[in-house]
Structure formats: C-alpha cells, structure tokens
Design goal:
The chain is of the alpha+beta class. Strand 2 and strand 3 form a beta hairpin. Helix 2 packs across helix 3 and helix 2 crosses helix 4. It starts with a helix and ends in a 22-residue tail after the last helix.
Length: 196
C-alpha cells in the first residue's frame, strides 16, 4: 500500500515540475504552446499598370524633366544620358532629403532607361505583396522584378549621394540570366549604345 502512495506522490511531483518547466520555459525556445500565431501570407500578384499609375508616372517624369531643365539645362531623353542627368540632380542641392516624391520620380526615370535598354524583356507592372503595392520593372511573363522607383530615394533619404550608373549596372546584373547575350561570350546585348 505504501508503494502505491509512493508512486502516486512521485507521479504528482513529476507532473507538477513539468507544468512548472513549461510555464517558465526560456523565451527563445519555440514550442507549440508559446509559438506566435502565424499570419496568412499574402501571395504576390503582378498586374498591368492602371491608367492612374500611368498618369502618375507621366507627371513624375514631367517633374524631373522640369527640374533638369531649370537647374542643369538638360532634358530627359530615355537613353543612357539620363543616368548622367539623374547623377547631376542627385549631386546638386536642389532636392530636399525628405522630398520623397521627387526622389521617387527620379526612380521612374531610371526605370524608363532600363525599359529602353531592354524593351523586349522588361515592362512596368504593379507588384503587390504583404509589404504593399509598388510599381516595378518586371521580366515579362515572370515574377522577377526590380524596384527602380525606390533605388535612389532609399539612398537619398539617408543623405547618401547615390552612384546612379553603379545602381543601374548592379540592377541589370541581377537580371542577367533573363537578358539577351551577344554570340561567342560577348556579354549582355544592350539596345542602347555604349561609349567605348
């Protein structure tokens, strides 16, 4: 009889200590009981630009064009010279650190150079995920996208002067596997002419 009481006491003690251990488990240990509920992941959707997006982009390009004309006497051409134009604007003191609208408008101009360089590969799209809605340059018929609208603004908002050509080249290299190649290992086949 004493053995039964002893076993019952041990069982009760073990279950109490297990409850204590579960209640006071370290916070960095994930168990089913203390695991945070997972949020449903929003799927990525990629859509065509709506007329409001297109209209906004035209206004943004006009803003950058007007700024370039008045400050540096140049205009947007939708070619590689726009990279120099953007660099001069970024290097000047004409755009306030918190002027996100103009900074992002410069990103639209940057995206249009990408599009001009690879018109059969890239297209402007609306990219939506759990982080929100963005305009992106995407490889046609894929979910592979670049986000030029914020490529300059993220650097400028922390008072960093972006190297526009390097940002452009690095972005293009991220998409290298999708880009046309010159024969005999000649590298990427760009549409816009490069200076030798």
């Amino acid at each position: 009889m004493n053995h039964i009481k002893f076993i019952a006491a041990i069982t009760l003690l073990c279950s109490a200590s297990m409850g204590f251990a579960q209640q006071y488990a370290p916070l960095n240990v994930v168990s089913e009981k203390n695991k945070a509920p997972t949020e449903p992941q929003k799927e990525v959707t990629i859509k065509n630009l709506g007329w409001m997006d297109q209209n906004k982009m035209e206004q943004e390009i006009a803003t950058v064009n007007e700024l370039a004309q008045t400050k540096i006497g140049s205009t947007i051409r939708r070619d590689l010279s726009d990279l120099q134009l953007l660099q001069r604007l970024a290097d000047g003191s004409w755009i306030a650190r918190d002027d996100y609208e103009t900074q992002q408008a410069m990103g639209v101009v940057l995206g249009n150079v990408m599009l001009a360089d690879f018109p059969t590969i890239f297209e402007w799209k609306v990219y939506e995920d759990k982080m929100g809605r963005s305009r992106a340059i995407c490889v046609k018929n894929t979910s592979e996208c670049l986000f030029p609208v914020t490529m300059l603004s993220r650097r400028m908002e922390v008072n960093s002067r972006p190297d526009v050509k390097k940002i452009y080249d690095d972005a293009i290299m991220l998409m290298e596997k999708h880009l046309p190649k010159l024969p005999y290992g000649g590298g990427i086949m760009y549409r816009l002419p490069r200076q030798k």
